[in-house]
Amino acid sequence: MCDPSQVDDVIIKAALEEQIRSFGQTPPQLLTTPHPARNSLQHVLNANIKNLNGIISVLTPAKEHPITVVKPLMQPAIHPSPVLFTVSSNQTITSNKFVPSIQTPYSIFVESDPAPRVVRDPIDPTLSSLPSSYAVSPDGKALFCAGFWDSSFKSFSVDSGKQIQSMFGHRDLVTCISMTEATLSLHIPHNRLADGIIVTGSRDATVCVWDWNGKQQRVTGIDGRHACPRSVLTGHVGQIECVYVSGEQGTVVSASRGSPIFLHRVTGELIRKIRAPPSYKLPSALIITKRCEIVAHYADKSGYLAVFSANGDILNTQELQEQVLSRPQTAPCQSAIRVLGLSHDQKFLIAGLTNGTVNVYPVDFRRIVGTQYQAEQN
């Protein structure tokens, strides 16, 4: 704190007085207690890992059958009654309700589905049951399955497990499937509106794009009735391993073994080929972020992650190393984790295990993003 009366120079004294009038002065002491510790990103990460102590619910949709799909449907505008949707490797479907509970510290509980349904149509034995073999409609009423011997993919009612429709457009087994997340009216050719877009990849090295009519609960074609693909995407030379469709950007990414990633528009035009490093040969999963970045996972060796821009530039690559976190306070899993899901509000983490068990953890990942953003700004 500066005292102008102690300054002899007239000019400097006048300048100090003017500065004090304009900006004030800093007091000699701001706080009477020590300043609280800064909430670092690592601190928040550790706090969220500790929260894994509290398992909200443990479900067993199909005992001894590995969990293949876990999908929480919790968007209030679409799902008035939030549910946790699961599919097991024996094609058992369950819809488990999130219900309020005063008996748990998190004021919510996941109630097991009292009547699991089983899809009776068997998947071709040469195709493994993977998360990429299934997709769920945005409203949670229909399940889409790939891998049938007749080169079709089928839709089933979640409520009854009965088949709704069979779609034919490929000349070999359908290996993977993806669907847009939100139920939004998408403007498409022929002056029609679709409630969603489904994309399928096949062993015939093609990718088909389909329109989903949420009101009719059916896949429709150009005439609005008969199911047929709106476009067929080509360019791959081998079996399609993974696909992903972004409804917001109207783009589709697809990958096959040993080939570039193809980025198409849903209307069929090729945007570009994206080439990964030479050692990345076994693609297993793709996603398009809201920032139009393409994230790819490769199953070579211990695994690789690669991030590409929409222009095809490599933004980042990382070889994955298996790590074991020894944390006595973390609730143990009785089996290996096979699949993970995150709720729309990022408050719940769902783990599907190989022994047929589903664990629901309360973890608020929004705090991590907020802390990371503050750290970047500072």
How do you describe this structure in short?
By secondary structure, this protein is mostly beta strands. The protein has helices at residues 10-23, 41-50, 366-377; strands at 57-59, 67-73, 83-88, 92-100, 108-111, 117-118, 134-136, 142-145, 152-157, 163-168, 174-179, 186-188, 192-194, 196-202, 207-213, 218-220, 231-233, 240-246, 251-256, 261-265, 270-274, 283-288, 294-298, 304-308, 314-319, 337-342, 348-353, 358-362.
Sequence-ordered SSE layout with sheet pairings:
Layout: H1 10-23, H2 41-50, E1 57-59, E2 67-73, E3 83-88, E4 92-100, E5 108-111, E6 117-118, E7 134-136, E8 142-145, E9 152-157, E10 163-168, E11 174-179, E12 186-188, E13 192-194, E14 196-202, E15 207-213, E16 218-220, E17 231-233, E18 240-246, E19 251-256, E20 261-265, E21 270-274, E22 283-288, E23 294-298, E24 304-308, E25 314-319, E26 337-342, E27 348-353, E28 358-362, H3 366-377
Antiparallel strand pairs: 1-28, 2-3, 3-4, 4-5, 4-6, 7-8, 8-9, 9-10, 11-14, 12-13, 14-15, 15-16, 15-17, 18-19, 19-20, 20-21, 22-23, 23-24, 24-25, 26-27, 27-28
